[in-house]
Amino acid sequence: MAVPAVSAKQESGWLPRLNAGYHKPALAVYLFIVVAHWAEHVAQAIQVYVLGWPLPEALGVLGIPFPWLVTSEWMHYGYALLMLVGLLMLRRGFTGRARTWWNISLAIQVWHHLEHLILLVQALAGTNLLGRPAPVSLIQLLVPRMELHLFYNALVFAPMVVAMLMHRKPRPAERAGMRCDCALAA
Fold this sequence. Notes:
single chain; mainly alpha; elongated
């Protein structure tokens, strides 16, 4: 399907172009980044629950050669921010039901980002919530960090995948509003 013609005013700027002619490749890059991060969380869970490694030694895949990645609040915050920015930037390309599911993912990521911001602020300030020995997020007061962030990433990922699938197979009215060529042939 060709990208629908739009006026020069609608196409000016990189963000409208990203959500039109470049939406499909941008979604592919974004999905690759999300799946790679998700794989890190899954690898760490496998190291703990299947291989029986102690949590301090379960560093995921990249954490084994680069252990500072796992302990860097900046790295975790940066990824949470990247996820949030990606969800915001690519949102305009979605229509109808797909936009609704993308918005659900975005809303969950806003909270996930806030939790990482709380962790980063504690690390930078050198003071942790409730006198804990390490930075702790709000929900982490109830659920261990590894499991919580595995859950958060799943919670953001699931509606994002639903949105992408619906975006590929839009209803006729949704297809009419699309400015990208992401939809499968009708």
